[in-house]
Amino acid sequence: MDRKYRISSISQYNADNNQMTLHPLVSVVDFSKAAERNWGEACKIRFEYEMYCIYLKDVKCGDIRYGREYYDYQAGTLVFFAPGQIADYDMPAEPYQPIGHGLVFHPDLIHGTTLGKMIQDYGFFSYKSNEALHISDDERQVVLDCFAKIYRELKQGVDKHSKKLIVSNIELFLNYCERYYDRQFITREKVNHGILANFEEMLNDYFHSEKPQLLGLPSVSYFAMQLHLSANYFGDLIKKETGKTALEYIQIKLIDTAKERIFDTSKSISEISYELGFKYPQHFTRLFKQKVGVSPVEFRGLN
After folding, report:
1. Is residue 276 a contact partner of residue 215, using CB atoms and an 8 Å limit?
2. Distance between CA 257 and CA 261 in Å, rounded?
3. What is the per-residue pLDDT across 271-300, written as a single tens digit (0 to 9) for each?
4. Is residue 51 within 8 Å of residue 57, measured between CB atoms?
5. pLDDT tens by residue, 83-92
6. What angle, 0 to 180 degrees and rounded to 10, lies between the N-to-C axes of helices 162-187 and 137-155?
7. Cβ partners under 8 Å of residue 225, min gap 6
8. Shortest CA distance to 26 belongs to which of 222, 199, 164?
9. Can you list the alpha helix ranges (DSSP code H) found in 111-230?
10. Burial of 92 from C-beta contacts in 10 A (0-12 / 13-18 / 19+)
11. What residues does 3 pair with on adjacent strands?
């Protein structure tokens, strides 16, 4: 890695982008005011985030990698970073002028607020690189309006109402983003159906292989990784497509497979439970009874 850049304070980030610091814990950034980026040569920069950062950029400014994947990143795209995340930027040799907007806020801003308690519910902060939010022109205007409201409040100066109003407007913006992601799940329905079909095929293959004995019970994170998706995005997609969580979907297939194998009276219930990936037969019995209403032994007797 050629260079590292840690985003740890509002004042430092504002100074680096020619912005005035109006509040120590939050900033709305207009990147057109930043100095021209001129790295002299193509290079890699690792950004280490210690704050929440949301970017809406309108110019190509280097490819972004999060983990091993490149961001599905273009004009009219929102990307989200949370504290503790790392992203690698492939910077071009040619100079360029940043254009776009950003919202940056420190975790301390939302401590003790409703948003602070529910920030983890906004799963898109944990989505992977190929899961960025693509917004329409109308949606882009709503985003800019939200940024403008926050900026106007920052210009008012800090008083006893500031934190509540700023945080409320950040929450409003995130709620819009949640709506737009729901829309994106719908407009990309064809792609999503392909992912669902692949998931079903992989799930069938999993139980008809030795993977349960080698890897244990199938997990949501395992299939998300196989499909090159984050666990959060994968879970949200499956929920939108089927009405069931990814875990519920896996458990339905697990129970269906178990029912088929219980008919094979040459195998004990314990053997079947191990074949399905359970470490302990009693865990299989408990889940089966919870989902079916009778134990595996009783089910075998009834059928």
Report:
1. no
2. 6
3. 999 999 999 999 999 999 999 999 999 999
4. no
5. 988 778 777 8
6. 170
7. none
8. 164
9. 114-118, 137-155, 162-187, 189-207, 211-215, 220-226
10. middle
11. 45
Given a cut of 70, whether residue 189 has pLDDT beyond it is: no
Give the strands of the sheet with 43-49, arranged side by side. 3-7, 43-49, 86-91, 63-66, 69-70
What are the pLDDT digits (tens) for 104-119?
Answer: 999 999 999 999 999 9
| Tokens encoding 190 | 């064809």
Residue 40 backbone class (left: φ over 0; alpha: ψ -120 to 50; beta: rest): left
Dist. CA 300–CA 280, nearest whole Å: 19
| Edge-first strand listing for the sheet containing 133-134 | 26-30, 100-105, 52-57, 77-81, 133-134
In degrees and rounded to multiples of 5, residue 244 shows phi and psi of -120, 150
Q: Residue 128 has what pLDDT? A: 60
- Among the residue ranges 27-36, 69-78, 211-220, the one predicted with the least confidence is 69-78
pLDDT at 66 exceeding the cut of 60: no
Instruction: Please provide the DSSP assignment of 105-136 as one string.
Output: E-HHHHTTSHHHHHGGG-GGGG--GGG-EE--
What pLDDT is recorded for position 218?
A: 92
- Measure the CA angle with vertex 246, ends 241 and 295; round to 5°: 125
- List the Cα angle 152/156/157 in 5-degree steps: 130
Which pLDDT belongs to residue 124? 86
| Whole-number Å distance between alpha carbons of 87 and 110 | 23
Q: pLDDT band for position 70 (50/70/90)?
A: very low
Two tokens at 124?
A: 């898109």
Tracing tokens 């037969």 back to the chain, one arrives at 281
Q: Which residues pair with 79 in a beta bridge?
A: 55
User: Tokens 């890897």 label which residue?
Assistant: 215
**Residue 159: DSSP 8-state:** -
